[in-house]
Amino acid sequence: MAPSLVLAGARVVLPSGVVEDGRVSVEGTRIVARAADSAPVIDVSGHWLIPGFVDIHNHGGGGASFSGTADDVLTAVRTHRAHGTTTLVASTVTDETDLLARQAGMLSELAEQGEIAGIHFEGPFISPCRKGAHSEALLRDPDPAEVRKLIDAARGRAVMVTLATELPGGVDSVRLLAEHGVIAAIGHTDATYEQTVQAIDAGATVATHLFNAMPALGHRAPGPIAALLEDERVTVELINDGTHLHPAALQLAFHHAGADRVAFITDAMDAAGTGDGRYMLGPLEVEVSEGVARLVQGGSIAGSTLTLDRAFKRAVTVDGLPVQDAVTALSVNPARLLGLFDRIGSLEPGKDADLLLVDADFDLKGVMRRGEWVVTPPQLA
To answer: SS3 of 160, please?
Structure first.
C-alpha cells in the first residue's frame, strides 16, 4: 500500500515559485494539502523536491526498445523511472506500416494499464533528406489514409505523430491529426520557412528535437527553425545531452521561445541507462561509444543515451538555467502538452504523488511514482 508521509525541510519547486523550507504531504497515491496527524515526517533538509519528469519522446533504455516485446517495453520504462521519468510516451521508429500498427496495438494495452502515457510515431512520414537514423527504404509520404491507419491501430492512445509536413499529404495529415486530438509534430523535415508556417496554421504544435534533422537557420532562408521558434502555438523539444545541441543553441531556444514553450526530451534508445556497445534502432545497427550513439553505416547520430535526471542537472549546472525553468521544461510543459496537467507535472494537492528528491548538487536521490518509492531516498533506507 502506498505510504502516508510528509517530506519536510526541502526547497519545493511549485509553478508559482520556489518555497524554502517547504513540505509535501502524501496520502495514498496523491499529494494532499495536509497528511494525517499520524503520518511520519521525513526531514529532507538541504534537498530539492520537484515533480516527476515527463518524457514525450523516448525510444527505449536499459538495453530494450519500444519496438520490441511487452517485456522489452517494461524494461525500458522501468529504467527511465529509476532516473526520474515518472510519465513516459513510447516512441516508435520507422518501419513497415503493418508492423507499426501491430506494435501500436501492443503499446496501447500498456497505455491502458498505465505503464506508458501513449504512443508517438516518429516516422515513416519523414523526409529522406533529413532521415537521421531512420531507414530510407521504409520512408513514405504522409498520406492521410496511412496516418489514419496508425492512429486507429493505437486505439485512442496515439498522442503524437512526427511528420515532414512539406511532403505530399503533409498539411492534410496535420489537419487530420488535429481533428483527432493527436499532436502533429514537425520534424525530420526539409521544409522552408513558409511551408513550416503553413503547417503550423494547419494545426502543428510541436517541433521534434528542434535544430536536429532540419535545415540550419539561415539569414536569407530561415527555414523551419525560425518559424517554430517565433510561433507561440509551438512547443519545441530539445535534447540537452551536450551532443545534440551546443549550449548557445539551447540558450537561443530559451530566449526566443521562453521557458513556457520548451520541453526537454531524451530521444533515448536502448543504450540509455546501460553502456557502450552495439545496439539496434529499428532495422539499423548503432554503435555507442563514450555515451554517443551513431549509426554503424553512415555515422549519423542515432538518438541518445540520455536520461532526464542528467538533462536536469546539465540544465542547471552547465546551462545556468534557474531550477524552476528546468522543471517547467521537464515536467510542467510536457504534462500540459499531453493534456495531463490536472494529474501530473507539479507538486499540488490532488495530483498524483509523482515527485523527485534531488540533493544540493542536483543529483537524484529519490523517485516516487503515484505514492510508491521507485528509488528510496537515503533518509528512508
So the answer is: strand
CB-CB contact of 176 with 146 (8 Å): no
Rounded mean pLDDT of 130-140? 89
Q: Can you tell me the distance from the alpha carbon of 103 to that of 98, in angstroms, rounded to the nearest whole number?
A: 9
C-alpha cell read off for 305: 543515451
Q: Can you tell me the distance from the alpha carbon of 183 to that of 202, in angstroms, rounded to the nearest whole number? A: 12
**Is residue 287 over pLDDT 80?**
yes
Cα distance between residue 307 and residue 322, in whole Å: 19
**238-272 per-position pLDDT tens digit:** 999 999 999 999 999 999 999 999 999 999 999 99
* CB contact set of 298 (below 8 Å; sequence gap of 6+): none
Q: Strands 60-61, 277-281: parallel, antiparallel or unpaired by DSSP?
A: unpaired
DSSP state of 259: G
C-alpha cell at 293: 550513439
Q: Which of 196, 133, 137, 136 is nearest to 164 (CA)?
A: 196
Let me know how many helices (H) and strands (E) the chain has, helices first: 10, 21
C-alpha cell of 110?
Answer: 500498456
Q: For residue 254, which phi and psi values (nearest 5 degrees)?
A: -65, -35
pLDDT at 2: 65
Q: What is the pLDDT of residues 162-192, one digit of tens each?
A: 999 999 999 999 999 999 999 999 999 999 9
Residues with catalytic roles: 267
Radius of gyration over alpha carbons of the chain, in Å?
20
| Those residues with Cβ within 8 angstroms of residue 27's Cβ, 6 or more apart along the chain or in another chain | 4, 35, 36, 39, 371
Looking up cell 555515451 gives 291
What does the block give as the cell for 39? 503520518
Give start and end residues of each alpha helix (H) in 119-246. Answer: 144-153, 170-179, 193-202, 223-230
pTM, rounded to two decimals: 0.96
pLDDT of 204 over the 80 cut: yes
**3-state SS class at 72:** helix
Longest CA–CA span in the chain (Å) reads 66
Please confirm whether the linkage preceding 283 is cis (ω < 30° from 0). Answer: no
Q: What are phi and psi of 334, to 5 degrees?
A: -65, -35
Give the C-alpha separation, 206 to 203, whole Å. Answer: 10
